[in-house]
Known about the structure:
There is one protein chain. With 248 residues, this protein is of the alpha+beta class. Helix content is 24%, strand content 19%. The protein has one domain (11-246): HIT family -  CDH-like (HIT family, subunit A). It contains 6 helices and 9 strands; from the N terminus they run ααβββααββαββαββ. The protein has a 9-stranded antiparallel sheet, with helices on both faces. The radius of gyration is 18 Å and the shape is globular.
Amino acid sequence: MRAAWLLLGLFLAPASSHAADPSALWKIVNGKCVPHEQDARDPSPCTVVDLANGAGKGFAVLKDRNGIAQFLLIPTARISGIDDPAILAPDAPNFWDDAWQARYFVEERLETELPRDALALAINSSVGRTQDQLHIHIDCVRPDVRDTLAANMDKVTEVWTPFPEPLAGHRYEAIRIPQETLEGANPFRILADAGVRDMGMHTLVVVGTTSPNGDRGFVLLDDHADLLAGDRASGEQLQDHTCSVAGK
């Protein structure tokens, strides 16, 4: 019986417990990128550091070691992730808008311009991440996910509804954001405003969209972790770190 409970405990343990150093991203940003930017206007090893006038609301963009063009947007303040109350503070920055603007680093890396629906932003749940510093994954979307979204966009409205088909084997809720940028549309707030209280058990994915008449927007996807079903709510799974949609 004791062995059975031990195995269950290991299964339910957060993914971050397996990371060599769950504070690695924080150490890079806080210990290297920010000091280098402050001292020499050199954000290395980050690509860019925005200090937001020293107000503690800045962010850094870092090339991830995984993938040919994956970047991470990381706050310069200590914020654990989607479970951190700071993301819902009245004056909280909209890091998602910053991350969408930073998609151009992906295109520069690929040396090609990508359509909106080829790009995705993702944040994993507290049990589906390996780092305890908030970071938004910026990368290409999986081709099969792109095709499934395109085939079902007529069923996505401006109200949260179950997405008709599984994405990467998991069921998501979906809502449409009918605007060209994410300015004024913070996915964290959109999820919380739906009455969600266990934010840390959720993952969010944002994918760009363009309607047949040319209107630009986004689809916001939400999955809730179900550890007994093997779902850690890692929306990063909807991304393709080989960027095959770009032909790379």
